[in-house]
Structures are given as structure tokens and as C-alpha cells.
Amino acid sequence: MSHEIPRIEKTADGGHQMVVNGKPFLMLGAELQNSSMTSADYMKATWPKLKAMNINTILGCVTWEMIEPNEGNFDFAELDEVIYDARDHDLHLILLWFGSFKNGQPTSLYIYYQKKSILTLQTGKSTYVPSWVKKDARRFPRAKLRKAGGRLETTEVLSIFHSEARAADIKAFERLIQHIKDIDEKNSTVIMVQVENEVGLLGDSRDGSEVANKRFSEPVPKTFVDTINKEWDNLHPSLRSNLSTFKALSAPSDSSWSATFGDSPQTDEIFMAYNYALYLEAIAQAGKSIYSLPLYTNVWQNMPNAATTSASGGNTPGEYPSGGGVPHVIDIWQLFAPTLSFIAPDTYLNDYAQCCADYSHRKQPLMIPEQRRDAHGARRIWCALGTYQALCTAPFGIDTLEPADCAFASHYSLLKSVRAHVLKAQSSPHISKGFFFDTFDVGSPDPSPPTTVTFGEWELTISRSFVFGHPSEGYGMVIAMDDNSKFLLIGQGFQVGFRSRKPSATFSGILSFLEKEVVNEETGELRTCKMLNGDETQSGRVCIMPSDSPDYGDFPICITIPARTRIAEAVPYCLEE
Fold first, then answer.
1. pLDDT tens by residue, 190-201
2. How do the domains of the chain map onto residue ranges?
3. Close Cβ partners of 36 (under 8 Å, ≥ 6 residues apart)
């Protein structure tokens, strides 16, 4: 019997699941620091730490310079040892191909947070290419930034408008994918591959080189215009907004990019997005034809409310990488790089829930390959998993934390135990709701108001758990079970109220509220630990999933107990008179 290749499968109910070794697999992911996986020795001490954090899927780099130090001579010894060691620790790998592009542009940029400059960094976009590529600018030309006075500045970024770099990248990627197939097809240690990393041009809205200018002045490919027109009603609203000039101009079919779409940074960005998508599509097609692992690429986000024009993730193309798959050009990537299973957001400072919504566009699978690794970030994964059925979330830089300091360890422990139920919700969109409640100062407005969700006849109001003092943070998800007649509550620091939507209902209440624990992680079988009522339900009003340390304020009676299993089952009922 042949071994099943890892795949992303669309379920009968319209969801998506990662399937590994023939079974749905809930990826509890984390990404390493940029270059960590170039050293098998470094990773030997890291694998046990990752296991202790309850992680089962590691995102780590494979760099072009590492596997092809001299043109045509490939060396996979270091990578092989990494793969074998991951396998020995029962960990799966998502390999990040740092080929032609690895985010950023070699100039000083500023990260702004809460309107303050907190970091100046140097980033390099084609810095992981081999030395024989770096030193040969004639064969591998670079993108040019347009500066004041018509001056062009050469970057370290490979130009996407010349064929040699793409051809060399394809050859290296083909050899990598073939090698993975040769050594791992029967084991599925490697389950997915990211193609390049956060592509796009920083410092300018488009490449200003002679070849790029020529391409920009040529007629827009008919395929592009026809596709945009055909897909108009399905485009992301922000892309339709950016293309309003296109509709107004109604340019002839042989017009240049600026004549067709208007002369603006947004047109530059559309031009770059189309050509980056074609570049990655060629690489992805070549790899997929050899070994059909799921492929994707990730995106450095724009930040519309950035306080400066030189911010990492700013307002206009070039302040963030122009051409990358941000929401207002995501359709271009989805339509012209169809070999990629999805386009994935790296989200640190953006609105997390909005990011999840944007990257569920066209009902593509959602994955968060990079995000914050602190408690603030950990709470948010419940939104991705519970509301948007994310395949995976992955805090960045996990290997420089100790297990005791990892905020994700506790969350992943809970998810691991209830994974059968989370996978069920993942396969059936609209039977679950994920949420989080952030910390806030006493006297300050609550940044996380209650949320309301409807399952069948029941309207659920999810809010912070009741305390007499100051409420703590919370997180979790609610899963509707048995045709919406009962609900699985997972998490802590929240409470759920139920209201029947039947016109004839005169009263809604809680029939039963049971603390549960998992007795079989594979099947999801639960057993009842306690029957909860009274103080745990505010005398039948809500089902409370308390935090670890409820604040009693000045109230002298401890009527709210701390969280224990973080799993409960609730059955509501109503009276009809």
C-alpha cells in the first residue's frame, strides 16, 4: 500500500483540514528564529524544549546558500540530520524556503508601536541566496529604488524581471523537493513547504530598473485584465476600491499599466503583486510536480494606522513590501499563483481578528505562520481556531524561550487534549466560536466587550467571567454539539449565557453544567468530574469558566472557584407557555 502524501483536504461541510498519515491532524505550531535550523547541533538541544511546550509542528528555514554553496553542487547533510532528529522526537516540520527572497530591503527601517519608535533594524531581502548569486549582478540583476533627482539606488533584492534568478531558484527548489521526497515520503516528517518569505519591495512602490520600467510601459497582459473583470464581484472590497480608477478609465486593451489603472503607488503595487505571484507560481509548480506537498507563502502586513512614513508595515506600498499579498491585492496572488494552497498573514501588531477574516477570503484555508509569542498572542489563537478554523498558528522565535516561560505551552496542552473536538469543529465551519478577553487597567474601558453568537435556536452571549473584583484575561471556544442541543466550553476566564430564539419561549435557563476531562485524546471521549450549579452558574444565570485566580475584591466569601480542567459541557433549556 502506498503512503499517503500530506495534504490539505476540503471537507464535506466546506472546511479545510491538514491530513497527515491518512488522518486529520491539528497542527500546534511554532516558528524558530530565522537561521536556527541551519544547525543540527543547535537543534539537538532545542527539540526537547519544543516537546515540553506541547508543540507538534515546527516551522524552520532551509536556505539556498546552505544547500547549494557552489552552483550545481548540493549538500543536504545538515538538513537530513535535522529531519531525522525531528522524526525521532515525533515532531513534524514545515520547511521555509529562503530562496530568492527573505523579507525586507537592506536599509534602515523603523518599527513603530503605540506611536513610538521602538526599534531600528537592518533587513536584507535576498541575503540567503548563495555567494555565487550575490556576487554576479550581471547575471542576477538587482531591483532599483527610485530616489530624488532621478537617482537609482541598487538594492540587494533580486529583480523579478530577469529570468536567470528565477531559473536558478527553480533548480534549487526542485532539488530540495526531490530530496525531501527521497528521504521522507514514507515518514511524512515534512508536511508542508513555504515558498520564499514575505516577498515584496521595501523603499519604493515598484522596481525602477530599466527592465522593470519597460515592462511597466508595455500593454497590461490581456489575461490579467480579463481575469480582473471576470472576478470583479468576488474581489476583496479593498482591491475593488483600489481599482476604481481602472473602471473609470476604461482604457483600450493595449494600454500600459499606468494608462489602464492610473498613475499611483497602488498601480505600482498591483504591477509588482502580479509579477511576484508569477515568479512564485513558477517555483511552486516546479516543486509540486515532483512531490505534491502543500505549498504556501507568507505576507508582511501593512499597517493602515502607522504613525510615520518610514514604519515597518506602514500606510503605502514601499513602507511595507510592495507586491506582497496584503489584503488589497490578495486576489491577485490567489488567481495568479494557484499552486499555492493559501496566502498566509504574519501578524504581530495588526488587528488579529480582522487579519483572520481577510485571509479567509475566497474561503481559502487560514494559517498564521508568524505571530506574537507572548500571552497576548497566545490568547488570540482561539479566535483563529474557533471562529476561522485555522489549520495552524505559530508564535515566532519559540526556540529562544524556556518551556516555563512559554505562554503557548498551557494553551497547546489544552488544545492537544481536546483536539478531536477542535478537528470536528474545523471540518464543520459555523459550529464553533473562538474568542479572547485582554487585560486592562482598573478604571480603563474594557477592550474586549461581550460577543453574541447564534447556534440554531440558541443565542449565546460570551463575556468575561464574573468576579467581585477586577476581571482577568480570558480565552476559549464554544462548540455546538448534538444539533445545537448542548455545548462544549473550552478555556477559562469567560462565561456563557443562553437565550432561546423561539417566539414562544418565555424563559431560558441551564439544564445541566458539567465539568469534564478528556479520557481518550484520540476519540475525544470525556468523563464528568463534577456537576456544577449554584455559585458556578450565578444561580442558573450563566455557565462560568473561571480564571486561575479570580479576584474577590473586598467580598469576604469565595464563591468563585479557580479554573481546573478548563473543559465543561452545558445544556440549556427553555419554557414555552
1. 999 999 999 999
2. 7-216+275-420, 434-576
3. 42, 43, 46, 60, 61, 399
